[in-house]
Amino acid sequence: MRHLSKPSDSWSGFDGYSEVHWILPPVRKLLDKIDLDALRGLGTSLRRGVTCSISPQFTFGTENLVRELVFVDGIVWIARLGLFYEHPAIISSEVVTMRYVKKLTTIPIPEVYHYDTDENNPVGCQYILMEAVSGCAAADSPHGVLLNLPNDKIDKVCAQLADIILQLSRLEFPEIGSLQQAENGDVYIGNSYPVYKRLDTLPKFSSTADYFKAIVFAKH
Is 190 inside any structural domain? Predict the structure, then answer.
């Protein structure tokens, strides 16, 4: 596999998308809306004066646009920019969860440097700034390497996946909900936020049966 010096080396923007694809209008709208000067200034401020540029390449999924901050000292950050408004508790929970898993496991989780749940901030949308992770998505891997593992690599990859699952299984809580953090730094279980209805909330649950029943009834 060829070495990727930056995550954006594998980003292809709109390539491969039909002009009638539903995701293109919101992506184009956010590309026009984002204040790149504000994003650059934010990165420079957080790095205490180390300046950065924004790579021209971008990528996106169904919920976020991703841009890349490249600092003059070679450090690279990722800006995950929300395409659609999300409940602030969802974003804060994602950050708390990433930090919690990173602290208590050896699973490779990017460092979160800063985030903002206010869509009316100077950047122009809700965002998370995080450490860049080397590599690329399986579907974008050269020659399908990650989708067609050679026989001598299968055991190693399966062992790594098993280790990740095992470590996650040890992070247990007495209730089902979203991880949140109190002002004193303690992590606790907050409300649930169903993925299919991003702005609705459900209470936390004490059993999986109650959780799945609530999900079923919430759909109707």
Answer: yes
Based on the domain organization, do 116 and 50 belong to the same domain? Answer: yes
What is the Cα–Cα distance from 211 to 135, expressed in whole angstroms? Answer: 36
Alpha-carbon span 115 to 120, nearest angstrom? 13
CA 186/CA 191 separation, integer angstroms: 16
The CATH number given to whatever domain includes residue 102 is 3.30.200.20
Return the closest-CA partner of residue 215 out of 206, 204, 202: 202
> What's the whole-model pTM score?
0.89
Sign, Cα dihedral of 30, 73, 6, 94: negative
Task: Name the nearest CA neighbour of 17 among 62, 64, 78.
Answer: 62
Tell me 176's DSSP state. B
Check if the beta carbon of residue 211 is closer than 8 Å to that of residue 175. no
What are the pLDDT digits (tens) for 149-206? 788 888 998 999 999 999 999 999 999 999 999 999 999 999 987 665 554 678 899 9
